[in-house]
Amino acid sequence: MSISLSGIGVSRGIAVGHAHWLERGVTEVLEASIPEPFIEDEVARFRRAVRLARQQLKDIRHAIPETTRADITDFIDTHLL
Predict the structure, then answer these.
(1) Are 20 and 30 in contact (CB under 8 A)?
(2) pTM of the entire structure?
(3) Which of 7, 8, 39, 80 could form an S-S bond across to 15 if both were Cys, CB 3.0 to 4.6 Å?
(4) What's the confidence (pLDDT) of residue 13?
């Protein structure tokens, strides 16, 4: 499977441009209960994922050249709040 995106490339991993839905349909959301003995582990797993995502955003933010438009960096900074 390949995805083709177009826009103005401002940095590796970031693109600015129009977004297009390539596929439409109903998204199936599955609900599941977490047995009580596993709740702490699941919360810890979630917190680790949040830490990793924040670090990835920080890495992206630091890799963006200082000459990049402020609205691009502001977009990432907003997600770091």
Answers:
(1) no
(2) 0.58
(3) 7
(4) 63
Structure tokens belonging to residue 54 = 């924040």
Greatest mean pLDDT among 39-43, 56-60, 65-69: 39-43
- Report which secondary-structure segment, H or E, holds 62: helix 39-63
55 belongs to a structural domain: yes
**Domain tally, the chain:** 1
Q: What is the dihedral of CA 60, 65, 71, 76, to 10 degrees?
A: 10
Establish if 7 belongs to a structural domain: no
Taking the alpha carbons of 31, 37, 43, 46 in that order, is the dihedral positive or negative?
Answer: negative
Helix (H, G, I), strand (E, B) or coil at 60: helix
- Mean pLDDT, all residues of the chain: 84
Tell me how far apart the alpha carbons of residues 74 and 71 are, in angstroms, rounded to a whole number.
Answer: 5
**Of the segments 20-29, 40-49, 61-70, which one has the largest average pLDDT value?**
40-49
Q: 69 lies in which domain range?
A: 27-79
